[in-house]
Amino acid sequence: MPESLIHARGLTKKFGDFVAVNGIDFDVHKGESFGLLGPNGAGKSTAMRMIGATSSRDAGVLTILGKDPDKHGPQIRAHLGVVPQQDNLDMQLSVSENLYIYGRYFGLPRAFVKGKIEELLTFAQLEEKRDAKVEALSGGMKRRLTIARALVSEPEILMLDEPTTGLDPQARHILWDRLFRLKEQGVTLLITTHFMDEAEQLCDRLIVMDKGSIMAEGSPASLIKDYSSKEVLEVRFGSDRNQELAEKLRTLCERIEELPDRILMYTEDGEALLGQIYASGMHPKTSLVRRSSLEDVFLRLTGRTLIE
Amino acid sequence: MAVAIAEARIGKWGERYYSGRVLQLLERGLIAFRSSTWMIVFSGFFEPVLYLLSFGYGIGKLLPTIDVGGETVKYAVFIAPALLATSAMNGAIYDSTMNVFFKLNHDRIYHGMLATSMGPLDVALGEISWALIRGLSYACAFMAVVAPLGLIPSMWGYLAIPAAVLIAFGFASIGMALTSYMKSFQQLEIINMFLLPMFLFSGSFYPLSVFPEWLQFTVNLFPLTHAINLVRGLCLGHINVALAGHAMYFVIMIICGLFFTTRRLNALFMK
Ligand SMILES: Nc1ncnc2c1ncn2[C@@H]1O[C@H](COP(=O)(O)OP(=O)(O)OP(=O)(O)O)[C@@H](O)[C@H]1O
Ligand SMILES: [Mg+2]
C-alpha cells in the first residue's frame, strides 16, 4: 500500500446553505498524479483550497502528510506549491522579484532563493522578461510565472488548479512535459482541469466531480472501460432531423446520447454500426468513428457534456 | 528546506497564525517601494513642516509664549511636539489604509502570501510594520528639522522617537484593522474625515483647557490627544505618570488592531 499523502473522508464545505463540496472521500499517494475533473461549479477549486490549507472544512476528515490543516496550516503549506485558478502575482514587482520574494515568504535564505531564480526563469521561458513588471506580461506569461513561482520552495506536492487555461497549445505541451519530469523526480501532482486530453495525459488516477460529489474514481483507462464503450460513432443528420431519427437509431445500438448538434452511439465496433445505419436506409450528413474518451465517461455519469 | 523552517515553529506561540516572517514582508515593501512614487513620500514629510512655519511664525507673532504644565514656552516649542506626533500618525495611516485597501480589494496579493507557510498574523504585522516605518521616518525627519532650531528644550525629547514608534504602530494597527472591514473607497473616506478634526481639536495648537468640560472629555478619548500629550511631555521634559497612561493607550490600540486585523484576514482569505 503506497503512502497516502492526502487523505480525505467525508470532506465537506458549505457556503451558507449551499454545499459546495459534499462529503467526498479520496486518497492521493506519494508520487502519483491525481486529477479532479468536473464542470464549472463542481467544487474542484473549493476542494483544492481546503487541501491547500487556505480554507477550513465544515465537516469530515482531512490530513495532508498526516497533519490536520486546521491545526498545522503553515507546516502543511510549507510542503505545497500552489498554482491557483486565478493568478495572484505581485503586480508591483518584476518577474524575477516575484520569484525571489515568494521564496522568501517560505522563510528560505536569500542565497538559496537567488540561486533558484535562473532555473525558474528558464522553466517559465521568461528569461527575457526577468526585469519586466508583471503587469506588462501577457496572460499566458503570467500563468507560466505563477507555475514557476509555485516551484520556488521545491514542494513535495504541486497543486495546479486549471494550470493550462490561457496557454497556447505549444506552451501547454511544454508544461505537460515539465510536469512529467517533476513527477519523475517524485513530486506528487494534484491537478484540476476540464480538459479531457489534459486529464488523460497527465493523471494516473482521477475523480470525476459534479455538484460537489464524486461521480467516479479510477485511472483514465479504467474509467473509460467501466463507463463507456470501446468506440463512439458520432453521426449528424442536421439539427432538425437528429431527434426524429434518434428513436430509430436506438434499435441499432444499446446506448445513444442525443446532443443538440449530433448523436453519439456507444459501440464496440463503430464502422460496423455505421454500415448497419446505411443498411437501414438512413444517411447521416457526417459521421465519425473515434475511441471513447473521458468526455464520454462524463456524459454517461452526469448526462451532460463537460464543455457546453 | 521550507518544511524544516516551518516545523521549527511547531509548538511555539501562535503557530497557526504566525511564522515569524515580518522581515520578509518588510523586504517586499522595500522592493516595491524602490519603484514607487517618491512625491507622495515627500509630501507627507513637508506637511507638518509647513504647519510649523505658518502657525509657528504667524501665530507666534501674536502669541509669543504659552503656558503649559506650569512652564512658559515659546509658541513654536508648544506646537512642534504635536506636529511630530501628527506626522507619525499621518505616515502610519497612509500605508495602513489606502495601500492596504487596494491590496485587499483590487489585488490578489494576500491570497498569494497566505498560500505560503506564512500566516495571517505575519501579513498583518508585516503591513503594519511597513506603515510604522513610514510614520517613524516622518517623525525622525521632522525631529531633524526642529531639534536644531532649538524647539526641543529637554534631553528627554530624544525619547520622542521611540514614542513615535509606539504612536505609529498604534495608528497603523487600528488603521489596518478598520480598513480590513471597509467595503468601498467611500467608507475609507470616513477615516480621513475623522483625522482632520482630530488633528485640529487634539490640542495641537492650543491647550485643551480652553474647551468646555464636555469637549475636553470627548477630545481626551481621541488617540491623537494622547499621542500629543506623550510627545509634548517628553519634549518639554515634563515627566510624570500620566505619560505612562498615554503610552498604555497605544499599547492597547496595538493589541486590538493586531487582533482584529488577524481575525479579519483569516475570515477573508482562509474561509
Ligand atoms: N467564497 C465563496 N462563497 C460562496 N460560494 C462559493 C465560494 N467559492 C465557491 N463557491 C461556490 O461553490 C461552488 C463550487 O465552486 P468552485 O470554485 O469550487 O468550482 P470549480 O469546480 O472550481 O469550478 P470551475 O471549473 O468554474 O473553476 C460554486 O457553485 C461556487 O459558486
Ligand atoms: Mg475552479
Give a verbal description of the structure:
The complex is a heterodimer of chains A (308) and B (271). With 308 residues, chain A is of the alpha/beta class. Chain A folds into two domains: 222 residues, 3-Layer(aba) Sandwich (Rossmann fold); 63 residues, YebC, transcriptional regulation domain (Alpha-Beta Plaits), CATH 3.30.70.980. In chain A, 38% of the residues lie in helices and 27% in strands. Chain A is built from eleven helices and 13 strands. In chain A, the strands form three sheets. In chain A, strands 5-6-7-3-8-9 form a six-stranded mixed β-sheet, with helices on both faces. Chain A has a four-stranded antiparallel β-sheet with strand order 11-12-10-13, covered by helices on one side. A three-stranded antiparallel β-sheet of chain A has the order 2-1-4, covered by helices on one side. Chain A starts with a strand and ends in a 6-residue tail after the last helix. The model of chain A has no long low-confidence stretch (mean pLDDT 91). Chain B has 271 residues and is mostly helical. Chain B has one domain. Chain B is built from eleven helices and two strands, in the order αααββαααααααα. Chain B has a two-stranded antiparallel ribbon with strand order 1-2. In chain B, a hairpin with a 2-residue loop joins strand 1 and strand 2. In chain B, helix 3 runs antiparallel to helix 4, helix 4 packs antiparallel against helix 6 and helix 4 runs parallel beside helix 7. Chains A and B meet through helix 2 and helix 3 of A and helix 1, helix 2 and helix 5 of B. The complex binds adenosine-5'-triphosphate and magnesium ion (MG). Magnesium ion binds next to helix 1 of chain A.
